[in-house]
C-alpha cells in the first residue's frame, strides 16, 4: 500500500511532489496528486519552492487509459478525476512560492498540463510533450486550454491541441513551454532540484509578489497593472526582505534572506 511519504518530501526548503510512478506506468498517480494537494494546503514558512517530479522513465505519461475504460460510468469517473486534478492545479496556482517542474521523458495529457502550470520547467534532450487528448477522443483538463495559449499564443495553441502535436525538447523551449534544457537527460532532476533550492533561499516575499502580479496581468488593464505594481513595490520597499535587498546592494554583499520569509 502506498503512503504519502512516497509522494511528498521536504528537503532544503523545497516541497517535492512525485506525480507519477513506474508502478503506474508513469501515468498520473492520483495518490501523488492527493498527497501534493494536502501538502500545499499546509505549506509552512519553511517551504520556499515546489518541485514537481515523476518517478520512472517519464515525468508523466498522462491519465491511466485502462482505468478510464474499466470504469462502470466513464463520464462520472473522468469528471471526478478532473475535479481532483483541478483542486491540485488551483493549489499550485495559489501557492506563494515558485513552482519548478523536472520534465524528463514524456509529458503527455495531464502531464503536459502540469508542465504548463509550472513557473519554470526544466527538460532534457529526450523530453517530449504531447496533448494526447484527441488521440483518445477526449478534451483537455488540468488547465491546458488556459495555460497553453498564454505560453505559445492562441493560434499556436490551437494548432498543437487540434493536431495532437508532439513537441521535442528544442521546440518546447523555443515556444516557451520549457524554460531550460540540460545537456543530458540524466541531469534534469538534479538541475531542477538545484534551481528549486536556489529559489527557496531567495527573497520569498518578492517571489510571492511577482507570481501575484503575473497572475493578475492576464485580465488586468495596463492602468490596473501599473497601480498593482506601484502598490506592490511600495510595500516591498518597507518590508524586511526589501530592506535587506537594498542594504546588501549598497554594502556590496550578498543579501541574506534567511529568517525574513
From TrEMBL:
GO function term, MF aspect, one: catalytic activity
SUPFAM superfamilies with a match to the protein in the record: ClpP/crotonase
InterPro entries: ClpP/crotonase-like_dom_sf (IPR029045), Enoyl-CoA_hydra/iso (IPR001753), Enoyl-CoA_hydra_C (IPR014748)
Name of a matching Pfam family: ECH_1
Highest taxon, organism lineage: Bacteria
Coiled coil: none
Similarity comment text for this entry: Belongs to the enoyl-CoA hydratase/isomerase family.
Protein name: Enoyl-CoA hydratase/isomerase
Amino acid at each position: 500500500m502506498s503512503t504519502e511519504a512516497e509522494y511528498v518530501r521536504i528537503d532544503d526548503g523545497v516541497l517535492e511532489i512525485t506525480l507519477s510512478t513506474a508502478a503506474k506506468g508513469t501515468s498520473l498517480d492520483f495518490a501523488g496528486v492527493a498527497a501534493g494537494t494536502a501538502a500545499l494546503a499546509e505549506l509552512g514558512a519553511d517551504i520556499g519552492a515546489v518541485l514537481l517530479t515523476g518517478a520512472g522513465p517519464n515525468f508523466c505519461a498522462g491519465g491511466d487509459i485502462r482505468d478510464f475504460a474499466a470504469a462502470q460510468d466513464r463520464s462520472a469517473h473522468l469528471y471526478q478525476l478532473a475535479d481532483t486534478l483541478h483542486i491540485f492545479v488551483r493549489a499550485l496556482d495559489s501557492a506563494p512560492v515558485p513552482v519548478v517542474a523536472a520534465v524528463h521523458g514524456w509529458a503527455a495529457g495531464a502531464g503536459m498540463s502540469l508542465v504548463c502550470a509550472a513557473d519554470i520547467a526544466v527538460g532534457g534532450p529526450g523530453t517530449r510533450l504531447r496533448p494526447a487528448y484527441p488521440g483518445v477522443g477526449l478534451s483537455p483538463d488540468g488547465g491546458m486550454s488556459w495555460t497553453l495559449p498564454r505560453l505559445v499564443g492562441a493560434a499556436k495553441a490551437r494548432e498543437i491541441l487540434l493536431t495532437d502535436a508532439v513537441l521535442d525538447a528544442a521546440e518546447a523551449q523555443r515556444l516557451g513551454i520549457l524554460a531550460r534544457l540540460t545537456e543530458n537527460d540524466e541531469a534534469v532532476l538534479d538541475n531542477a532540484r538545484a534551481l528549486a533550492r536556489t529559489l527557496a533561499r531567495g527573497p520569498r516575499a518578492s517571489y510571492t509578489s511577482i507570481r501575484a502580479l503575473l497572475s493578475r496581468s492576464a485580465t488586468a488593464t495596463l492602468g490596473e497593472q501599473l497601480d498593482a505594481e506601484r502598490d506592490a513595490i511600495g510595500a516591498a520597499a518597507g518590508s524586511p526582505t526589501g530592506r535587506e535587498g537594498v542594504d546588501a546592494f549598497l554594502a556590496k554583499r550578498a543579501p541574506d534572506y534567511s529568517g525574513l520569509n
